[in-house]
Specification:
Blueprint (H helix, E strand, L loop, with lengths): L1 E6 L14 E2 L2 E2 H9 L6 E7 H13 L3 E5 L4 H12 L3 E6 L7 H8 L4 E3 L8 E3 L2 E5 L8 E4 H10 L3 H6 L2 H4 L7 E5 L16 H14 L7 H14 L1
Parallel strand pairs: 1-4, 1-6, 4-5, 9-11
Antiparallel strand pairs: 2-3, 6-10, 7-8, 9-10
Length: 236
């Protein structure tokens, strides 16, 4: 079973409550979920903490996402709660900071060829890499694709706060334990110096400006965002 699980909570220290800040015709969180809902998956989940659940529950419900509540700081455990509850074997991991997350790149990653080779001739044979991600697109557009089996191992073995809070570092910092695939995003998505995540008030202002320029009621195409960013870069 494939699941999209997005981590969201309201306790950000740099920009408190950013998930509920207005954006387009709704909120930052609404825009994240609307975009991720375009990724083909068996289940869509918003994973949050107890303190945020009352506020984020209605946002999840109106966008067709199931709500899962888990630890605030141990986000790795929160993800594993969601995986177990719904029987997810292949996870599309996303974060609530990214209201311009690329559903197109997520779909490409999910349908791509990141497979662990086995000694069998002919065709695409084997299992997916434990961890897959694209490189080179603007910060805030990407997702991670993770096999549940690998995340359960990380949950059992990872002890550092950084590994528990950021979920996947234990995997890609141990290539001797896990199969890792990090491939360049297609050339048309390449813009590694750009940033479309929301971490600070300045980030929020930049993303809100993109929405004012491009949003017409439907999720903005990622390539339209990149085209706008490139045109502005050229004018500088």
């Amino acid at each position: 079973m494939t699941g999209v699980v997005v981590q969201v909570r309201l306790g950000s220290t740099r920009l408190p409550g950013k998930a509920l800040l207005p954006l387009g015709d709704a909120s930052v969180c609404d825009m994240v979920l609307r975009r991720l809902a375009l990724v083909t998956a068996d289940v869509l989940v918003l994973a949050t903490d107890e303190a945020s659940s009352a506020s984020l529950g209605p946002v999840a419900a109106r966008n067709g996402f199931e709500l899962v509540v888990g630890p605030a700081e141990d986000v790795l455990a929160r993800y594993c709660i969601a995986l177990r509850r719904f029987g997810i074997d292949l996870l599309v991991r996303a974060t609530g900071d990214n209201p311009l997350v690329s559903f197109e790149l997520a779909s490409l990653l999910l349908n791509g060829d990141e497979w662990e080779a086995l000694a069998v001739t002919g065709g695409r044979v084997g299992r997916r890499a434990d961890y897959s991600a694209h490189l080179g697109m603007p910060v805030g557009m990407g997702v991670e694709l993770v096999r549940a089996e690998a995340l359960y191992r990380a949950e059992a073995e990872a002890t550092g706060d950084h590994d528990r809070e950021h979920v996947c570092p234990y995997l890609y910092s141990h290539p001797e334990l896990f199969s890792i695939s990090r491939s360049d995003a297609p050339p048309e998505y390449q813009m590694p110096g750009a940033r479309v995540t929301v971490d600070t008030q300045a980030d929020y202002g930049s993303v809100a400006d993109i929405y004012r320029s491009l949003y017409r009621g439907d999720p903005i195409a990622s390539l339209d965002v990149i085209k706008l960013l490139r045109s502005r870069e050229e004018q500088c």
